[in-house]
Design brief:
Blueprint (H helix, E strand, L loop, with lengths): L5 H15 L4 H15 L4 E7 L4 E6 L10 H8 L4 H9 L5 E2 H4 L2 H5 L2 H10 L3 E7 L6 E8 L7 H36 L6 E6 L5 E4 L1 H10 L12 H17 L8 E5 L2 E8 L8 E8 L5 H5 L5 H11 L4 H8 L3 H15 L4 H13 L8
Antiparallel strand pairs: 1-2, 1-5, 3-4, 4-5, 6-7, 6-10, 8-9, 9-10
Helix pairs in contact: 1-2, 1-8, 2-8, 3-7, 8-15, 12-14, 12-15, 13-14, 14-15
Length: 369
């Protein structure tokens, strides 16, 4: 790996800090691009959500889009010929790759995506990473240059270092967006939505519980019966354990979903921690028969066995518990996890779990506000 300069580290830390400070997906998408350009110099950076029939594109500087009447529609039509998009759609490997890793200059010039988009923009070199998404969606962060020089290995290293933090920041801001959508839905009646919200005051006291949340708590925890001013004890205990583990790991509390056995299924709980002293913590509650499916985890580009291992880890199982559940040795579990880390481009169990939940629950284009 190329030695990183002090300026590289400062740019990397600045990008991570800026991405974690955003409160909406719109701000995250727009605020991310200048930081990426400071991290890896380029003519422009773009945020792209690509599906078979449509695409959403943001660029920095934004005036590059002025040359196109509908850049999103054009990208959607030509995405199948884009080497990086096609590779990710096939492998779900979101680490940094360059156009020159996949095609020669001559091959690039013969592609419809070059003729219809990149030739008009003057793009000859590109490097991109992706954020986890549902199988039909590609969420790409692309950096583009003109004829002067291709991207180097330092650029690739910096993007790969930044990617796990950006995945987590994207997932966190999506959780805030879900909370805002839920709160807006409260005014229209949340009874039929199937998802509830609870806000917590000092020392865990319930300040507010939506009708859907109250029903979930009452039906999943019969002993609670909605009479107390606090969470049901099993949920409160699980939440405190999760917070303690997050503090010990140096991570933000509530970074990962919490799966609590309740009744005849599970309750998936997301803690959305307050960002200011006058804001309450909030919990998003959703009842699920199967909180995380193997096929959802496999969509990240893992083998079935790797997905089975990561799924159990994401649901809170220890290495020994995973080994017993799958009938393999703890050493084999650890070896599978090593391959998972490599495949996802992460360096820890916590980051792999965050990526599993992100890929399963955050689909591009669903949370536009």
């Amino acid at each position: 790996m190329d030695t990183l300069r002090e300026a590289d580290v400062r740019a990397l830390l600045g990008l991570v800090s800026e991405s974690n400070a955003q409160r909406s997906l719109r701000d995250f998408r727009q605020g991310l691009l200048p930081g990426l350009r400071r991290l890896v110099p380029c003519e422009f950076a773009s945020y792209n959500e690509v599906e078979p029939e449509r695409a959403f594109v943001l660029m920095d500087p934004p005036d590059h889009l002025d040359a196109f009447e509908d850049a999103g529609a054009l990208l959607a039509r030509t995405s199948a010929t884009h080497p990086l998009i096609a590779r990710y759609a096939r492998t779900r490997d979101g680490r940094a790759y360059k156009l020159s890793d996949l095609v020669t200059r001559e091959q690039l010039h013969r592609l419809p995506v070059y003729e219809q988009i990149y030739r008009r923009l003057g793009v000859e070199h590109q490097i991109a990473i992706t954020l986890p998404s549902q199988p039909t969606v590609v969420i790409g962060l692309a950096l583009s240059r003109d004829r002067r020089s291709d991207f180097g290995e330092r650029d690739r290293t910096l993007l790969n270092l930044a990617r796990p933090a950006l995945v987590q920041a994207y997932r966190n801001v999506a959780a805030y967006a879900r909370l805002q959508a839920t709160l807006r839905a409260l005014s229209r009646g949340l009874a039929d939505r199937g998802e509830g919200v609870v806000t917590l005051g000092r020392e865990g006291a319930i300040e507010f519980a939506s009708p859907a949340a109250r029903r979930l708590l009452e039906t999943r925890f019969p002993d609670w019966q909605g009479r107390g001013a606090r969470l049901p004890q099993p949920l409160a205990d699980a939440l405190e354990r999760a917070r303690a583990a997050s503090r010990a790991a140096g991570a933000a509390a509530g970074a990962l979903p919490l799966v609590v056995p309740a009744g005849d299924g599970s309750l998936v709980v997301r803690l959305v921690p307050a960002r200011a002293a006058d804001e309450p913590d909030a919990l998003l509650l959703e009842a699920r028969a199967e909180p995380l499916a193997v096929e959802q985890v496999r969509a990240l580009g893992l083998t079935r066995r790797q997905a089975e291992v990561l799924r159990l880890v994401a649901l809170g199982s220890s290495t020994e518990q995973v080994a017993r559940a799958l009938g393999i040795s703890p050493a084999t579990v650890r070896k599978h996890l090593e391959h998972v880390y490599e495949r996802l481009g992460v360096g820890s169990r916590t980051a792999a779990v965050a990526t599993a939940w992100a890929g399963a629950e955050v689909a591009g284009g669903e949370l536009d506000e």
